[in-house]
Amino acid sequence: MNRQRDPIIALATAKGRASVGIIRLSGEGVLQISKALCHKDLHPRHATLLTFEDDQGDLIDEGLAIFFPGPNSYTGEDVLELQCHGSVAALNLLIEHCLKIGKPHRLRLAAPGEFTERAFLNNKIDLAQAEAIADLIDASSALAAKGAAKSLKGEFSKKIQIFLEALIELRALTEATLDFPEEEIDFIEQHDVFNRLKNILSNIQDVKKSAQQGAVIRDGLTIVLVGQPNVGKSSLMNALAGEEVAIVTEVAGTTRDRLKETIQIEGVPLHIIDTAGLRETTDSVEQIGIERTWKSIEQADLVLHLMDVSDGAEISALDQELINKIKDIATKQVPIKIVWNKLDRASSCHKNTQNEFYVSAKTGLGLEALKQELLSVAGWQPDAEGGILARQRHIEALLEAEQFINNALVLLKRETASVDLAAEEMRLAQDALSKITGEFLPDDLLGKIFSTFCIGK
Fold this sequence. Notes:
Small_GTP-bd, flat, GTP-binding, tRNA modification GTPase MnmE, GTPase_MnmE, GTP-bd
């Protein structure tokens, strides 16, 4: 039994009270299920007003039914959409009724992302476009939505396809020269291979920069605020968020647990984590909070170590000890920026350096410079070309392709050029790029990607 051919059903709209709810069916047997459910033939791609009744003839709801015959549908299969009132109870009753009608056709509930997975498997979209659908749904800013829409439209995929076609052509010419050395035809000169390969590499690097910008828009930056009690971590979090999200008092140890808030600066999401003040304490609750602080640091992209500048801009022995411990426990090379807070109480003037910033969370003094530094650490370049909403696996694939092409260029530059080895490096670059669109990807990874989608999409 092939589950990929089974008809599937799911709620396509979000669960909860709403004016409209949409149920989607797709697969073999949907046409027959449609006739049994609607008691009439539906005109393709036309909305038909119907009453939906259960087995006893009792009314479930009134709504619209639209039939999309394959392959001209979202999934490439026969698709039926039922548009009803957004009552959770009524929608569940209608889904249960459909499952009863569709039992002879093996109708079942869809797995997360299964509709989009079928669209991919039926060549309606490539993998980058499929991921863009999920990213568009999850977009938390206008920039993220625009970037996802670009990828969904196929802008990213088209660029990758151009690289693939250029590599395939270059490989074919190179391998023809190797396979038919006795022919008088010059398929391609070695210096032409080198120059064309350099051009492909340059274009890949440009797309990689755009993809990296997109990854910043999509994933943002996780920033952890640390420091001794009462240095103003919660005040800084409130200042960055633009609202009071953390409790601020003069009592040391007010923050006992992690508090996370996502803010946006120029459309870039920054995940700010306020943590318990780091100190020796006998309070068991505060100790748990401090332990969680260290765990947060392990996952951070950036640590802001706050200190009180009103006591003088000298790093204390305890703060230096904390900085050293942060460096020791971080699972990656996490940058640490020192933020001297309470600038409004400082007795002398101070100037920002590359790793030290002076602010007043209370008055907002110095906050703009700190925000720009956060964007810089995230890799955001406001003047760069608008990024496509890329994922980390896309960037890794582009980096792989870049490395393989660099290897090929090195081989071609040698006095005794290894053209056959260079052709193999081109093939590896081609395989790396094919991972992005899904032409060359293991099935288990495909399953992992689609499992992160919404049910009904």
